[in-house]
Amino acid sequence: MTTDSFRPKEKISTFYPPQRTLLGPGPSDTHPRVLSAMARPTLGHLDPVFTEMMEELKSLLRYVFQTKNLLTFPVSGPGSIGMEMCFVNMVVPGDKVVVCRNGVFGGRMIENVERCGGIPLVVEDKWGDPVDPQKVEDILKKNPDAKVVAFVHAETSTGVQSDAKTIGQIARKYNCLTIMDTVTSLGGTPVYMDEWDIDAIYSGSQKCLSCPPGLSPISFSERVVDMVKNRTEKVHSWFMDINLLLGYWGSTTRTYHHTAPTNSLYGLHESLVMIYEEGLERSWARHQRNHEALKAGLETLGIGYVVDAAYRLPQLNSVHVPAGVDEKEVRRKLLNDFSLEIGAGLGDFAGKIWRIGLMGNSSKLENVIFFLEALEHVLTDLGVQVNKGAAPSAAHQYYANNPTA
Predict the structure, then answer these.
(1) Can you tell me which residues bind substrate (predicted)?
(2) Where are the domains of the chain?
(3) pTM over cut 0.90
(4) How far, in Å, CA of 57 to CA of 73, rounded?
């Protein structure tokens, strides 16, 4: 048998992806500056020049997380790795963990607790509603031996944002550690890790940070570090054990742990430099302004939001599909005719909603107008009565009445 026996029968050549406008729940459009940074020469992950950049990365992440935690760094892997890293380090078999579920990603937290041998105490809220802090306090009163409270700050499956400050204060009142998912919120809406008493936080590179997927920014408080150092049994994951990662991401040593994805880290560094240059408050304001303009346009089409205004994520717009409209066909035509991607509903919302992302580099005026024009065109093609041009005009009017500072 020769090597040719294993050659693919079809002709395979270099892959060139189509140019899309990504307005779904993630990933968002990667900024050209990030792509350029990722194309720079690869360095060894222990190269002293690279380790200097690592220190800058940690400092920039402390800025976006609004924390002074020394153990703040990007994990090599997607946001799901960041989530699992929190649970596998902070939950030991038999621990009671309060988990708030108001969408898909709260459910994944429950799965992590169970796989760590913990006992999940579930706070249930309706999809599209924020976590009810009173329910969190009620369950902690009944379970004074609970060790951790875990919740999703920005639930990507529904577009709702919960009151992280109040939940963090309640958890601290009952001497619980906290785990918070900021995969969709970081960079797009306020996150104040220290002020909100959050002990462990994780995010993803592919949403409001304008990077490709593959890295998970994370931060741990000193309370978590002390707890993990004093565990009586090993963390049930070699790769995610923060005791071992301290040797690589610590401030004084650079002990080999794994081969870090150097070029991906260049990209994250550049994206964080861009947020630093723009300023966090301006980034949050940009996402809010584009959300309001989108909403003004959607209202002319009679399309309403799933989430009450007080709890809506500006970067993840979940809206009801108009009655009688084939939501899948709309998404298909947007992709095929306009190379524009939006997201479908998940779980309880499957077939009922669209999820329109305005995150990071995707959150800009031209994308809002392009989407509204494309949506009007597709709806007209499907026989829906539309006042052609009204949606983009309403968005333009909002921008004219609300100029940037």
Answers:
(1) 355
(2) 32-276, 280-401
(3) yes
(4) 7
